[in-house]
Design a protein that fits this description.
Blueprint (H helix, E strand, L loop, with lengths): L12 H11 L15 E6 L2 E7 L4 E9 L2 E5 L7 H8 L9 E3 L5 H4 L2 H4 L4 E5 L2 H4 L18 E3 L2 E6 L2 E7 L9 E5 L4 E5 L20 H11 L5 E4 L7 H23 L4 H6 L16 H12 L11 H11 L1 H14 L8 H13 L3 H14 L6 H14 L3 H14 L4 H11 L2
Parallel strand pairs: 4-5, 5-6, 6-7, 11-12
Antiparallel strand pairs: 1-2, 2-3, 3-4, 8-9, 9-10, 10-11
Helix pairs in contact: 6-7, 7-9, 10-11, 12-13, 12-14, 13-14, 14-15, 15-16
The structure holds zinc ion.
Length: 428
Amino acid sequence: MPLTINKESHMRNAILTVIAASLLICTSAMSAPGEYDIKTTKLADHIYELSFDGGGYTVKVIASVGVDGILLVDTGKKQAAEDLRAKLRTLAPGDPKIIILTHEHAEHLGGNELFGKEPVVIGHSSLRSILKQGAFLYEEFSEATLPDIGLNDSLSVFFNGEEIKVIAVTGSHSGSDLVVWFTKSRDACVAGICNSPFFPSVDEETGDVLKYSSAVQRIIDVLPPDVTIVPGHGTDCTIVELRKFHDMLFKTTEIVRSELAKGKDIATIEKEDALKEWKSFEGSYTSANGWIEYLGRGFRKDPADQRPFPVEPLYYALKAKGLDSALACFQDLQKNRLDKFKFDETTAAYIGYLLFENAKMPESAGFFELSLKEYPDGVYKELCYRNLGIAYEKTGNTSLALKNHRKFLELNPKDSTTAKAIERLEKE
Ligand SMILES: [Zn+2]
Protein backbone atom coordinates (compact mmCIF):
# COMPACT_ATOMS: atom_id res chain seq x y z
CA MET A 1 0.00 0.00 0.00
CA PRO A 2 -0.16 2.29 1.00
CA LEU A 3 2.40 4.52 3.41
CA THR A 4 1.95 5.73 3.46
CA ILE A 5 2.41 10.29 5.68
CA ASN A 6 1.79 3.23 4.83
CA LYS A 7 1.01 1.92 5.37
CA GLU A 8 0.72 0.96 3.12
CA SER A 9 5.44 4.02 2.21
CA HIS A 10 7.56 6.90 2.95
CA MET A 11 9.54 10.06 2.26
CA ARG A 12 8.01 8.71 -0.51
CA ASN A 13 5.23 10.85 -1.75
CA ALA A 14 3.07 7.90 -2.60
CA ILE A 15 3.30 6.35 0.72
CA LEU A 16 2.77 9.71 2.22
CA THR A 17 -0.45 10.09 0.37
CA VAL A 18 -1.76 6.79 1.58
CA ILE A 19 -0.62 7.28 5.11
CA ALA A 20 -2.02 10.75 5.21
CA ALA A 21 -5.37 9.31 4.29
CA SER A 22 -5.24 6.37 6.64
CA LEU A 23 -3.68 8.19 9.55
CA LEU A 24 -6.84 9.95 10.37
CA ILE A 25 -8.67 6.73 10.94
CA CYS A 26 -5.94 4.30 11.83
CA THR A 27 -5.86 2.34 15.02
CA SER A 28 -3.50 3.06 17.84
CA ALA A 29 0.13 2.01 17.79
CA MET A 30 -0.52 0.35 21.11
CA SER A 31 -3.24 -2.02 20.00
CA ALA A 32 -4.41 -4.55 22.51
CA PRO A 33 -4.60 -8.26 21.66
CA GLY A 34 -7.93 -9.05 20.07
CA GLU A 35 -8.29 -5.58 18.61
CA TYR A 36 -7.89 -6.77 15.04
CA ASP A 37 -10.70 -8.81 13.64
CA ILE A 38 -8.87 -11.25 11.36
CA LYS A 39 -11.15 -12.75 8.74
CA THR A 40 -10.23 -16.14 7.26
CA THR A 41 -11.21 -17.12 3.72
CA LYS A 42 -10.30 -20.49 2.24
CA LEU A 43 -9.02 -19.88 -1.28
CA ALA A 44 -8.10 -23.47 -2.13
CA ASP A 45 -7.56 -26.85 -0.48
CA HIS A 46 -4.80 -25.67 1.87
CA ILE A 47 -4.54 -21.96 1.04
CA TYR A 48 -6.08 -19.42 3.40
CA GLU A 49 -6.45 -15.66 3.07
CA LEU A 50 -6.25 -13.83 6.41
CA SER A 51 -7.47 -10.25 6.08
CA PHE A 52 -8.16 -7.34 8.38
CA ASP A 53 -8.88 -3.63 8.31
CA GLY A 54 -5.53 -1.85 8.35
CA GLY A 55 -7.14 1.57 8.92
CA GLY A 56 -9.49 2.24 6.05
CA TYR A 57 -8.02 -0.34 3.69
CA THR A 58 -7.81 -4.12 3.71
CA VAL A 59 -4.52 -5.86 4.50
CA LYS A 60 -4.06 -9.49 3.42
CA VAL A 61 -1.74 -12.29 4.46
CA ILE A 62 -1.83 -15.67 2.70
CA ALA A 63 -1.08 -18.94 4.49
CA SER A 64 -0.35 -22.34 2.99
CA VAL A 65 -1.17 -24.85 5.72
CA GLY A 66 -0.45 -28.58 5.35
CA VAL A 67 1.81 -31.52 6.03
CA ASP A 68 4.96 -29.43 5.68
CA GLY A 69 3.65 -26.83 8.13
CA ILE A 70 2.84 -23.16 7.51
CA LEU A 71 4.18 -20.93 4.76
CA LEU A 72 3.17 -17.28 5.01
CA VAL A 73 3.08 -14.70 2.27
CA ASP A 74 3.63 -11.40 4.15
CA THR A 75 3.23 -10.85 7.87
CA GLY A 76 0.74 -7.95 8.04
CA LYS A 77 0.85 -4.91 10.29
CA LYS A 78 3.02 -4.94 13.37
CA GLN A 79 0.07 -4.03 15.59
CA ALA A 80 -1.97 -6.96 14.27
CA ALA A 81 0.76 -9.60 14.56
CA GLU A 82 -0.40 -11.19 17.83
CA ASP A 83 -3.96 -11.44 16.54
CA LEU A 84 -2.70 -12.91 13.30
CA ARG A 85 -0.71 -15.55 15.16
CA ALA A 86 -3.74 -16.45 17.27
CA LYS A 87 -5.81 -16.89 14.12
CA LEU A 88 -3.09 -18.94 12.42
CA ARG A 89 -3.04 -21.29 15.39
CA THR A 90 -6.68 -22.10 14.79
CA LEU A 91 -5.54 -23.49 11.42
CA ALA A 92 -2.44 -25.39 12.58
CA PRO A 93 -0.09 -25.58 15.55
CA GLY A 94 3.28 -23.86 15.56
CA ASP A 95 4.70 -20.89 13.72
CA PRO A 96 5.55 -20.51 10.02
CA LYS A 97 8.50 -22.38 8.55
CA ILE A 98 8.83 -20.15 5.50
CA ILE A 99 7.89 -16.48 4.99
CA ILE A 100 7.82 -14.85 1.57
CA LEU A 101 7.69 -11.04 1.64
CA THR A 102 5.97 -9.50 -1.36
CA HIS A 103 7.61 -6.08 -0.88
CA GLU A 104 8.93 -3.49 1.50
CA HIS A 105 5.89 -1.59 2.79
CA ALA A 106 5.34 -1.67 6.52
CA GLU A 107 1.88 -3.22 6.57
CA HIS A 108 3.19 -6.27 4.71
CA LEU A 109 6.13 -7.08 6.94
CA GLY A 110 5.18 -5.63 10.30
CA GLY A 111 4.85 -9.10 11.83
CA ASN A 112 8.43 -10.02 10.95
CA GLU A 113 9.68 -9.40 14.43
CA LEU A 114 7.13 -11.82 15.84
CA PHE A 115 7.17 -14.44 13.08
CA GLY A 116 10.43 -13.99 11.22
CA LYS A 117 13.26 -15.13 13.49
CA GLU A 118 13.07 -18.90 13.04
CA PRO A 119 11.65 -19.40 9.54
CA VAL A 120 13.46 -19.05 6.26
CA VAL A 121 12.56 -15.57 4.96
CA ILE A 122 12.50 -14.97 1.20
CA GLY A 123 12.37 -11.54 -0.42
CA HIS A 124 13.67 -9.53 -3.32
CA SER A 125 17.44 -9.15 -3.24
CA SER A 126 17.01 -5.40 -2.72
CA LEU A 127 14.84 -5.87 0.38
CA ARG A 128 17.62 -6.33 2.94
CA SER A 129 19.27 -3.02 2.12
CA ILE A 130 15.91 -1.21 1.83
CA LEU A 131 14.93 -2.35 5.33
CA LYS A 132 18.15 -1.01 6.80
CA GLN A 133 17.72 2.59 5.70
CA GLY A 134 15.41 5.60 5.64
CA ALA A 135 12.07 5.28 7.37
CA PHE A 136 12.65 1.57 8.00
CA LEU A 137 15.31 2.46 10.57
CA TYR A 138 12.43 3.34 12.91
CA GLU A 139 11.11 -0.22 12.65
CA GLU A 140 14.40 -1.52 14.06
CA PHE A 141 14.11 -4.92 12.39
CA SER A 142 16.52 -7.36 13.95
CA GLU A 143 19.00 -9.16 11.73
CA ALA A 144 17.23 -12.48 12.21
CA THR A 145 14.03 -11.19 10.63
CA LEU A 146 15.62 -9.90 7.41
CA PRO A 147 15.47 -12.04 4.24
CA ASP A 148 17.69 -15.14 4.27
CA ILE A 149 17.23 -15.71 0.55
CA GLY A 150 17.06 -12.95 -2.05
CA LEU A 151 16.02 -13.18 -5.67
CA ASN A 152 16.27 -10.93 -8.70
CA ASP A 153 14.51 -13.13 -11.17
CA SER A 154 12.57 -16.16 -9.92
CA LEU A 155 12.79 -19.24 -7.74
CA SER A 156 10.55 -22.17 -6.82
CA VAL A 157 9.62 -23.40 -3.37
CA PHE A 158 8.15 -26.90 -3.03
CA PHE A 159 5.87 -26.92 0.03
CA ASN A 160 2.64 -28.60 1.02
CA GLY A 161 2.51 -30.64 -2.18
CA GLU A 162 2.90 -27.93 -4.77
CA GLU A 163 5.38 -25.73 -6.57
CA ILE A 164 5.23 -22.12 -5.46
CA LYS A 165 6.80 -19.85 -8.04
CA VAL A 166 8.22 -16.59 -6.73
CA ILE A 167 8.76 -14.08 -9.52
CA ALA A 168 10.39 -10.65 -9.26
CA VAL A 169 8.28 -8.02 -11.03
CA THR A 170 10.02 -5.10 -9.48
CA GLY A 171 10.11 -1.35 -9.79
CA SER A 172 6.52 -0.20 -10.37
CA HIS A 173 4.68 -0.18 -7.03
CA SER A 174 7.95 -0.43 -5.09
CA GLY A 175 11.56 -1.52 -5.42
CA SER A 176 11.06 -5.06 -4.13
CA ASP A 177 7.79 -6.34 -5.64
CA LEU A 178 7.36 -10.11 -5.97
CA VAL A 179 4.52 -12.26 -7.27
CA VAL A 180 3.91 -15.49 -5.34
CA TRP A 181 2.10 -18.04 -7.47
CA PHE A 182 0.71 -21.23 -5.93
CA THR A 183 0.73 -23.24 -9.15
CA LYS A 184 -1.48 -26.17 -8.12
CA SER A 185 -3.89 -24.13 -5.99
CA ARG A 186 -4.08 -21.53 -8.78
CA ASP A 187 -3.77 -18.51 -6.54
CA ALA A 188 -1.31 -15.69 -7.18
CA CYS A 189 -0.44 -13.06 -4.57
CA VAL A 190 0.47 -9.91 -6.45
CA ALA A 191 0.54 -7.46 -3.52
CA GLY A 192 0.89 -3.86 -4.73
CA ILE A 193 1.08 -4.64 -8.45
CA CYS A 194 -2.69 -4.93 -8.63
CA ASN A 195 -5.13 -2.87 -6.60
CA SER A 196 -8.22 -3.77 -8.65
CA PRO A 197 -10.82 -2.32 -8.69
CA PHE A 198 -9.11 0.82 -7.38
CA PHE A 199 -6.36 3.22 -8.44
CA PRO A 200 -3.08 1.98 -6.94
CA SER A 201 -0.40 3.82 -4.98
CA VAL A 202 3.23 4.16 -5.95
CA ASP A 203 6.33 4.36 -3.82
CA GLU A 204 7.97 7.25 -5.57
CA GLU A 205 11.32 6.57 -3.94
CA THR A 206 11.83 2.99 -5.10
CA GLY A 207 8.97 2.43 -7.57
CA ASP A 208 7.99 4.11 -10.84
CA VAL A 209 4.44 4.95 -11.85
CA LEU A 210 5.42 4.86 -15.52
CA LYS A 211 6.39 1.18 -15.22
CA TYR A 212 3.10 0.11 -13.64
CA SER A 213 1.31 -0.78 -16.82
CA SER A 214 4.13 -2.96 -18.15
CA ALA A 215 4.53 -4.72 -14.78
CA VAL A 216 0.85 -5.67 -14.82
CA GLN A 217 1.13 -6.82 -18.44
CA ARG A 218 3.99 -9.09 -17.42
CA ILE A 219 1.83 -10.74 -14.76
CA ILE A 220 -0.95 -11.24 -17.29
CA ASP A 221 1.54 -12.86 -19.67
CA VAL A 222 2.97 -15.21 -17.05
CA LEU A 223 -0.10 -16.41 -15.15
CA PRO A 224 -2.65 -18.93 -16.49
CA PRO A 225 -6.17 -17.69 -17.35
CA ASP A 226 -7.94 -19.48 -14.48
CA VAL A 227 -5.75 -18.19 -11.63
CA THR A 228 -7.23 -16.13 -8.77
CA ILE A 229 -5.39 -12.83 -8.39
CA VAL A 230 -4.90 -11.79 -4.76
CA PRO A 231 -3.92 -8.11 -4.37
CA GLY A 232 -2.40 -6.97 -1.09
CA HIS A 233 -5.24 -4.49 -0.52
CA GLY A 234 -7.66 -4.65 -3.42
CA THR A 235 -10.34 -7.22 -4.17
CA ASP A 236 -9.47 -10.77 -5.22
CA CYS A 237 -10.13 -10.98 -8.93
CA THR A 238 -9.75 -12.88 -12.19
CA ILE A 239 -7.33 -12.33 -15.04
CA VAL A 240 -10.20 -10.66 -16.92
CA GLU A 241 -10.49 -8.08 -14.14
CA LEU A 242 -6.72 -7.71 -14.01
CA ARG A 243 -6.86 -6.86 -17.72
CA LYS A 244 -9.40 -4.10 -16.94
CA PHE A 245 -7.03 -2.79 -14.26
CA HIS A 246 -4.22 -2.84 -16.84
CA ASP A 247 -6.43 -1.08 -19.37
CA MET A 248 -7.07 1.70 -16.84
CA LEU A 249 -3.32 2.06 -16.13
CA PHE A 250 -2.37 2.14 -19.79
CA LYS A 251 -5.07 4.54 -20.92
CA THR A 252 -4.85 6.97 -17.98
CA THR A 253 -1.07 7.11 -18.38
CA GLU A 254 -1.53 8.05 -22.04
CA ILE A 255 -4.18 10.67 -21.20
CA VAL A 256 -1.92 12.44 -18.70
CA ARG A 257 1.07 12.14 -21.05
CA SER A 258 -0.97 13.72 -23.86
CA GLU A 259 -2.38 16.54 -21.69
CA LEU A 260 1.08 17.44 -20.37
CA ALA A 261 2.39 17.46 -23.95
CA LYS A 262 -0.19 20.16 -24.73
CA GLY A 263 1.54 22.35 -22.14
CA LYS A 264 -1.03 21.94 -19.36
CA ASP A 265 0.03 21.73 -15.73
CA ILE A 266 -1.24 19.15 -13.26
CA ALA A 267 -3.72 21.55 -11.62
CA THR A 268 -5.34 22.25 -14.99
CA ILE A 269 -5.54 18.56 -15.87
CA GLU A 270 -7.24 17.93 -12.53
CA LYS A 271 -9.59 20.87 -12.95
CA GLU A 272 -10.62 19.61 -16.38
CA ASP A 273 -11.39 16.23 -14.81
CA ALA A 274 -9.27 14.46 -17.41
CA LEU A 275 -9.88 11.03 -15.84
CA LYS A 276 -13.64 11.43 -15.41
CA GLU A 277 -14.26 8.21 -17.33
CA TRP A 278 -12.19 6.32 -14.75
CA LYS A 279 -13.87 7.59 -11.57
CA SER A 280 -15.12 4.09 -10.79
CA PHE A 281 -11.53 3.32 -9.72
CA GLU A 282 -11.86 5.73 -6.79
CA GLY A 283 -12.98 4.33 -3.47
CA SER A 284 -9.74 3.38 -1.79
CA TYR A 285 -6.68 5.41 -0.91
CA THR A 286 -5.99 7.04 -4.31
CA SER A 287 -8.46 9.42 -5.96
CA ALA A 288 -8.59 10.19 -9.70
CA ASN A 289 -6.77 13.46 -9.01
CA GLY A 290 -4.27 11.63 -6.81
CA TRP A 291 -3.59 9.30 -9.74
CA ILE A 292 -3.14 12.29 -12.06
CA GLU A 293 -0.63 13.69 -9.57
CA TYR A 294 1.31 10.40 -9.45
CA LEU A 295 1.46 10.32 -13.24
CA GLY A 296 2.30 14.01 -13.48
CA ARG A 297 5.22 13.63 -11.09
CA GLY A 298 6.33 10.55 -12.99
CA PHE A 299 6.48 12.45 -16.27
CA ARG A 300 8.01 15.57 -14.79
CA LYS A 301 10.70 14.37 -12.47
CA ASP A 302 11.48 17.49 -10.51
CA PRO A 303 14.90 17.21 -8.89
CA ALA A 304 13.65 19.24 -5.92
CA ASP A 305 11.09 16.55 -5.18
CA GLN A 306 13.77 13.89 -4.97
CA ARG A 307 15.13 15.23 -1.70
CA PRO A 308 14.33 12.80 1.11
CA PHE A 309 12.68 13.75 4.34
CA PRO A 310 15.37 13.93 7.04
CA VAL A 311 14.36 10.60 8.58
CA GLU A 312 17.84 9.15 8.83
CA PRO A 313 19.68 12.00 10.62
CA LEU A 314 16.74 12.43 12.98
CA TYR A 315 16.66 8.71 13.78
CA TYR A 316 20.36 8.75 14.64
CA ALA A 317 20.00 11.97 16.66
CA LEU A 318 17.16 10.42 18.66
CA LYS A 319 19.09 7.22 19.17
CA ALA A 320 22.24 8.98 20.32
CA LYS A 321 20.93 11.82 22.47
CA GLY A 322 17.16 11.68 22.72
CA LEU A 323 14.25 13.92 21.80
CA ASP A 324 15.70 17.36 22.57
CA SER A 325 18.73 16.61 20.43
CA ALA A 326 16.53 15.35 17.59
CA LEU A 327 14.33 18.48 17.73
CA ALA A 328 17.47 20.65 17.67
CA CYS A 329 18.75 18.60 14.71
CA PHE A 330 15.41 19.17 12.92
CA GLN A 331 15.71 22.96 13.36
CA ASP A 332 19.33 22.97 12.26
CA LEU A 333 18.69 20.92 9.10
CA GLN A 334 15.61 22.97 8.28
CA LYS A 335 17.66 26.14 8.48
CA ASN A 336 20.87 24.97 6.86
CA ARG A 337 20.32 21.87 4.70
CA LEU A 338 17.34 22.53 2.48
CA ASP A 339 19.64 21.56 -0.38
CA LYS A 340 19.71 18.00 0.92
CA PHE A 341 16.45 17.38 2.77
CA LYS A 342 12.79 18.12 2.16
CA PHE A 343 11.00 20.21 4.77
CA ASP A 344 7.33 20.89 4.26
CA GLU A 345 4.03 20.43 6.03
CA THR A 346 4.54 16.68 6.07
CA THR A 347 8.01 16.51 7.61
CA ALA A 348 7.43 16.82 11.37
CA ALA A 349 4.09 14.97 11.22
CA TYR A 350 5.75 12.13 9.33
CA ILE A 351 8.56 11.74 11.84
CA GLY A 352 5.94 11.79 14.60
CA TYR A 353 3.97 9.13 12.76
CA LEU A 354 6.99 6.86 12.38
CA LEU A 355 7.74 7.14 16.09
CA PHE A 356 4.09 6.68 17.06
CA GLU A 357 3.73 3.56 14.91
CA ASN A 358 6.77 2.14 16.64
CA ALA A 359 5.43 2.90 20.12
CA LYS A 360 7.91 5.69 20.91
CA MET A 361 5.24 7.80 22.57
CA PRO A 362 7.15 10.72 24.23
CA GLU A 363 9.29 11.13 21.11
CA SER A 364 6.30 11.04 18.77
CA ALA A 365 4.55 13.66 20.93
CA GLY A 366 7.56 15.96 20.52
CA PHE A 367 7.26 15.85 16.73
CA PHE A 368 3.46 16.11 16.62
CA GLU A 369 3.70 19.20 18.86
CA LEU A 370 6.31 20.62 16.49
CA SER A 371 4.05 19.94 13.52
CA LEU A 372 1.16 21.81 15.19
CA LYS A 373 3.47 24.67 16.09
CA GLU A 374 4.66 24.99 12.50
CA TYR A 375 1.27 24.40 10.86
CA PRO A 376 -1.50 25.00 13.42
CA ASP A 377 -4.18 24.72 10.73
CA GLY A 378 -2.35 22.30 8.49
CA VAL A 379 -3.67 19.14 6.89
CA TYR A 380 -2.16 16.99 9.63
CA LYS A 381 -3.73 18.79 12.60
CA GLU A 382 -6.32 16.08 13.18
CA LEU A 383 -3.68 13.39 13.00
CA CYS A 384 -1.56 15.32 15.47
CA TYR A 385 -4.38 15.92 17.97
CA ARG A 386 -5.53 12.34 17.80
CA ASN A 387 -2.13 10.78 18.21
CA LEU A 388 -1.07 13.31 20.86
CA GLY A 389 -4.14 12.39 22.88
CA ILE A 390 -3.17 8.72 22.70
CA ALA A 391 0.55 9.35 23.27
CA TYR A 392 -0.04 11.51 26.35
CA GLU A 393 -2.55 9.02 27.69
CA LYS A 394 -0.05 6.20 27.29
CA THR A 395 2.61 8.20 29.09
CA GLY A 396 0.31 9.17 31.97
CA ASN A 397 -0.05 12.89 31.16
CA THR A 398 -3.79 13.13 31.73
CA SER A 399 -4.19 16.88 31.32
CA LEU A 400 -2.43 16.99 27.95
CA ALA A 401 -4.21 13.81 26.86
CA LEU A 402 -7.57 15.41 27.65
CA LYS A 403 -6.61 18.66 25.92
CA ASN A 404 -5.70 16.87 22.68
CA HIS A 405 -8.56 14.38 22.77
CA ARG A 406 -10.95 17.34 23.13
CA LYS A 407 -9.33 19.17 20.23
CA PHE A 408 -9.72 16.06 18.08
CA LEU A 409 -13.32 15.57 19.16
CA GLU A 410 -14.15 19.18 18.27
CA LEU A 411 -13.06 18.37 14.72
CA ASN A 412 -14.62 14.87 14.73
CA PRO A 413 -17.67 15.07 17.01
CA LYS A 414 -18.85 11.58 16.07
CA ASP A 415 -15.61 9.81 17.05
CA SER A 416 -16.83 7.50 19.82
CA THR A 417 -13.36 6.13 20.65
CA THR A 418 -12.12 9.60 21.57
CA ALA A 419 -15.35 10.44 23.41
CA LYS A 420 -14.91 7.29 25.52
CA ALA A 421 -11.26 8.15 26.19
CA ILE A 422 -12.30 11.60 27.46
CA GLU A 423 -14.98 10.07 29.67
CA ARG A 424 -12.46 7.60 31.06
CA LEU A 425 -9.83 10.26 31.76
CA GLU A 426 -12.32 12.68 33.34
CA LYS A 427 -13.11 10.04 35.97
CA GLU A 428 -9.46 9.77 37.01
ZN1 LIG B 1 2.87 -1.46 -0.92
